[in-house]
Amino acid sequence: MLISIITPTFNAGSTLCDALESVRNQMGDDTEHLMMDACSTDKTLELSKRYPHLIVRSEPDRGIYDGMNKGAELARGEWLLFLQGDDWLPAGTVDAYRKAIAENPSIEMICGDCEAVRNMLGKWESVWSVANPASKKLTVQNIALGEPMINARLIRKDVFQRLGGFSLKYSLASDRDFLLRCAEAGTRQAEIPSMTYRYRWHAGSSTMTEGNSMTRQLSAENLEVVRSHLLDAGRLEAGDRAGLRKLHTRLTVQAAMNALELMKPSFFRSLLEGHRVDPMWSLAFLSEFIGSLPGFLARGCRTRTQLNSGS
Question: Which of 191, 225, 264, 267 has a 20 to 30 A CA-CA distance from 134?
Answer without folding.
Answer: 225
